[in-house]
Amino acid sequence: MEGVAWAAHRFLMHGPLWRLHASHHTSSRRRLEGNDLFGAAFALLAFGLFWLGARPGWDVIWWTAAGMGAYGLLYAVVHDGMVHRRFPLPVRPARGYLRRLAQAHHLHHRTHARDGAVSFGFLMPRDIPTLKRRLRERQAGRA
């Protein structure tokens, strides 16, 4: 699921659907943003796949929907709750994997434009020194 999410983020959200995703790269105190439509669309797709997968012999479709649902739940809790603090979550990433995940996502947000961002995945972040180097290189290339 992470690979699909990475590709959708990189090539759709930072591509032709940037107009919706741009709301996520700007500071806002709104409860909802245009970017939230992606979560709704993926949830509808998962519900549709659950419906299709309920037929005998369509188990693979059902399990695909289950994977999408589990990833979406993790994403909502970790991304919206822990990283962006859109709802209260007692966990603050101080070290280890969760800290690296939050740092990688914050590095992604250092770019407020469609191009030049790093770290398009979410649950499998790259190491922070590599992401910082890539971000510097991309910013130097635009100057």
Account of the 3D structure:
With 143 residues, the protein is mainly α. It has one domain (2-142). The protein contains 6 helices and no strands. The chain has helices at residues 2-13, 18-21, 36-53, 59-83, 96-108, 128-142. Helix 3 runs antiparallel to helix 4 and helix 5 packs parallel to helix 6 (128-142). It is globular, with a radius of gyration of 16 Å. It starts with a helix and ends with a helix. The mean pLDDT is 91. InterPro entries: BETA-OHASE-like, Fatty_acid_hydroxylase. Keywords: Carotenoid biosynthesis, Membrane, Oxidoreductase, Transmembrane, Transmembrane helix. This is Beta-carotene hydroxylase. Belongs to the sterol desaturase family. Residues 4-122 form the Fatty acid hydroxylase domain.
Q: Helix segment count?
A: 6
Spell out the helices and strands N to C. HHHHHH
Mean pLDDT: 91
Low-pLDDT ranges: none
Structural class, judged by helices and strands?
mainly alpha
**Bulk shape:** globular
Question: How many E strands?
Answer: 0
Number of individual domains: 1
Largest sheet: none
Which structural traits does this protein have?
143 residues, mainly alpha, 6 helices, 0% strand, Fatty_acid_hydroxylase
Topology:
Blueprint: H1 2-13, H2 18-21, H3 36-53, H4 59-83, H5 96-108, H6 128-142
Quick structural gist:
This protein has one domain (2-142). The protein is 61% helix and 0% strand. The protein has six helices and no strands.
